[in-house]
Design goal:
- This protein is an alpha+beta fold.
- The protein folds into 3 domains: 117 residues, Orthogonal Bundle (Butyryl-Coa Dehydrogenase, subunit A, domain 1); 98 residues, Butyryl-CoA Dehydrogenase, subunit A, domain 2, CATH 2.40.110; 146 residues, Butyryl-CoA Dehydrogenase, subunit A, domain 3 (Up-down Bundle), CATH 1.20.140.10.
- The strands form 4 sheets. A 4-stranded antiparallel sheet has the order 4-5-9-8, with helices on one face. Strands 3-6-7 form a 3-stranded mixed sheet.
């Protein structure tokens, strides 16, 4: 009779054995980003969050460039050329520290750099991408407007031709990195349709006041973009994008990173809940020894690791060139929604301590309230999937 193979021990931190799907380079990327976040973000992020600021953002950007985290899924022009799974692992580790840090990286790489890389001219790529990959230049992405979030086709920002130049006017809202960016990718209506423009932020008529009084993503720079007759040369337009498909493809790329990132926030809160349940005593024993607490932890673990497995599956599809936008919506809808529920359940396990910044739970929970709605609300992703499932368009 053949002996059964010896099973590996159960790992509470990786109950499904997902790490076995990763190769040595995947693990090296993950560990590099995790160590950077533990050293540069975790000791300070509660204070940053409480003060509502992200000090030293330019230095942080340069350090992120040094470890290859900026535009890391892009190839050439100083970018790391890493695969989608490795980029996803980086997003997970960054958001395990704070959603604001992952947003800095996502907007830089998956929105601003991605737009230039995919739709820009060779001159635009050579001018901006190497400096953005190194963190020397910070970029932002202007699509959302004060009155047009989920319906970008109705944007009012407009660019008109004036001789050989373009003249750009309008407002954008909720723009990550806006006040510290040296370049903005701004989308505007034109006579030809929606076009993207590479806008140096030192142009006359351009302003980016920072948005204050946020109760979410507080350790992040969020701004309004105001463009009052900003004059741009003819070659400021992105030649490869006409219509809404351009900005939406950028959003799809960034949403993919959120699928991973949300699970980083959830993991941190889950780990905090497990540690607390092991040490907090009530009625003569640790609360982790009670059935109701164990039920909560079991449900949290199931959703956390299902979400990571889903993110990994989508990453492999992206690496194979087979990832559809509807599948990204599937991941964003599920993982952010489940991440918030994990954070809220962790808060109940920590009791009153769950609202204290001495623990990471409430910070992550409030951050995820923004992640839930940016780059596509729950309702929009439900409608994307509804249309894909039925063939019927319910958007209008």
């Amino acid at each position: 009779m053949t002996a059964s193979p010896k099973l590996p021990p159960f790992d509470p931190t990786d109950p499904l054995g997902i790490d076995e799907l990763l190769d040595a380079e995947d693990l090296a990327v993950r560990d590099t980003v995790r160590k950077w976040a533990e050293r540069r973000v975790l000791p300070h992020v509660a204070e940053w969050y409480e003060k509502g600021e992200l000090p030293g953002i330019r230095e942080l950007a340069r350090e992120l460039g040094e470890i290859g985290a900026l535009g890391m899924s892009l190839s050439g022009y100083g970018c790391a050329g890493a695969g989608a799974v490795r980029y996803g692992l980086a997003c997970l580790e960054l958001e395990a520290a704070d959603s604001g840090i992952r947003s800095l990286v996502s907007v830089q790489g998956s929105l601003a750099m991605y737009a230039i890389h995919r739709f820009g001219s060779e001159e635009q790529k050579q001018t901006w991408l190497p400096r953005m990959a190194s963190g020397e230049v910070i970029g932002c992405f202007g699509l959302t407007e004060p009155d047009h979030g989920s319906d970008p086709a109705s944007m009012r920002t407009y660019a008109r031709r004036d001789g050989g130049d373009w003249v750009l006017s309008g407002r954008k809202m909720w723009i990550t990195n806006g006040s510290v960016a040296s370049v903005a990718v701004v989308w505007a209506q034109t006579e030809e349709g929606i076009r993207g423009f590479v806008v140096p932020t030192d142009r006359p008529g351009f302003a980016a006041p920072e948005i204050r009084h946020k109760w979410s993503l507080r350790a992040s720079v969020t701004s309004e973009l105001i463009m009052d007759e900003v004059r741009l040369p003819a070659d400021a337009v992105l030649p490869g994008a006409i219509g809404l498909k351009g900005p939406l493809s950028c959003l799809s790329h960034a949403r993919y990173g959120i699928v991973w990132g949300a699970m980083g926030a959830a993991r941190t809160c889950f780990e905090a809940a497990v540690d607390y349940a092991r040490t907090r005593e009530q009625f003569g024993k640790p609360i982790g020894g009670f059935q109701l607490t164990q039920a909560k932890l079991a449900d949290m673990a199931v959703e956390l690791h299902k979400g990571i497995l889903l993110a990994h599956h989508l990453g492999r599809r992206m690496d194979a060139g087979r990832l559809r936008p509807e599948q990204v919506s599937f991941g964003k809808l599920n993982n952010v929604r489940e991440a918030i529920e994990i954070c809220r359940t962790a808060r109940t396990i920590l009791g009153a301590n769950g609202i204290s910044l001495e623990y990471p739970v409430m910070r992550h929970a409030t951050n995820l309230e923004s992640v839930l709605t940016y780059e596509g609300t729950v309702e929009m992703h439900q409608l994307v999937l509804g249309k894909a499932l039925t063939g019927l368009d319910a958007f209008r």
